[in-house]
Design brief:
about 0% strand; about 70% helix; mainly alpha; about 350 residues; two-stranded antiparallel ribbon
Length: about 350
């Protein structure tokens, strides 16, 4: 438990103290946010706000993990694989952000290029997880393994999960602190889930129904990663909350979304991520509905997609939208954790 707290504290300190320095440097380098011309007009005043804050978040989670493992040695390749997803997608996002800055437009990498980057990261993660981390064989999972073997399809499934999750967080990152605050809630859930699986691993608690078939080292390692990321995002949110002094950019949103998918895969809670990240799923669904309705019916369902912009155009103040969406994110996380714990109790588990 101490190693998890150390990781969270180190990640928090890095971003809480390092983000102001990043703000000054990014402003001096001209790394300012570009704003969609067709977006809410109130957002135009945010033009030029430093972006690419995801660099600080990734740095914070890496320092958190490293400090924890220096104090408590024993790294596991599962945790390193999860961190690799965040770094890989953060690199894709950074390329996108830098192109936007260079072109002075809100358009960076093409959709195809982003998808290729996500595919490379997703498949690379799958290979590392299966062949180098000692992780169990790939099954489809909800709250735990379903027993449905994916085999080689797992590589495609992991890519789809990582792409969907990273794009979901990216779409949600449209208001000050919305994506970072919501991500922090889901990361907190995965600290609890991974630590719970560590404490109730079948190697430690040989109960045939309630225990979790995940390597003890892998469970603890990803709990440390999730804690470091939680601390890093919380420290960044201090400066990213409305009115934001810095944005995470695609560097941060793609990295965090990919990290959540990787955590879900390693902890065998793949489909539970849809519940825990319910807000991200809702926002993504709003974009899909808008696009399909416009192409098939030539009409819009929402005044603007993603969903948070729809409520802005209805007249809701930005801060009201943010807080209410945080509430939705919190309810989704609470419901997901409730399902996780209910499954444990239903199988005869005891604390």
């Amino acid at each position: 438990m101490t190693s998890i707290l150390i990781s969270a504290a180190a990640g928090l300190l890095v971003t809480l103290l390092g983000t102001p320095l990043a703000i000054r440097l990014f402003r001096a380098w001209g790394w300012g946010q570009r704003i969609r011309e067709d977006g809410p007009q109130g957002h135009l005043e945010k033009m030029g706000t430093p972006t690419m804050g995801g660099v600080v978040i990734i740095g914070g989670m890496l320092v958190g993990y490293a400090v924890s493992r220096i104090v408590y040695p024993g790294p596991n390749n599962a945790g390193l694989s999860v961190l690799g997803v965040a770094i890989g997608l953060g690199t894709v996002g950074a390329a996108d952000d830098l192109l936007k800055i260079r072109r002075q437009r809100s358009l960076g990498l093409t959709k195809t290029t982003k998808l290729v980057g996500q595919a490379v990261v997703g498949i690379g993660f799958s290979i590392a997880l299966i062949h180098f981390s000692g992780w169990m064989q790939p099954d489809l999972s909800f709250i735990r393994d379903t027993g449905f073997r994916l085999g080689v399809v797992f590589y495609v499934w992991a890519f789809l999960m990582i792409a969907a999750s990273s794009n979901g967080v990216n779409l949600t990152d449209g208001l000050d602190g919305l994506a970072s605050g919501s991500s922090a809630l889901v990361l907190a859930a995965y600290v609890i889930i991974a630590f719970w699986e560590f404490r109730h691993s079948c190697r430690l608690v040989p109960h045939p129904s309630a225990c979790y078939h995940i390597p003890v080292g892998a469970a603890l390692d990803v709990a440390i990663v999730a804690a470091g990321a939680l601390g890093a995002v919380a420290g960044f949110l201090w400066w990213n909350a409305a009115p934001a002094k810095i944005f995470m950019g695609d560097t941060g949103s793609l990295a965090l979304g990919g990290l959540l998918a990787a955590l879900a895969i390693v902890t065998n809670t793949q489909l539970l991520l849809l519940v825990l990240g319910g807000l991200f799923a809702l926002v993504t669904a709003s974009v899909i509905i808008q696009v399909v309705a416009f192409r098939l019916l030539h009409r819009r369902v929402f005044r603007m997609a993603p969903l948070h912009h729809h409520f802005e155009l209805l007249g809701w103040p930005e801060f009201t939208v943010i807080v209410r969406f945080w509430i939705l994110a919190g309810l989704a996380v609470a419901f997901g954790l409730g399902l996780f714990y209910a499954d444990f109790l239903a199988r005869g588990g005891t604390t």
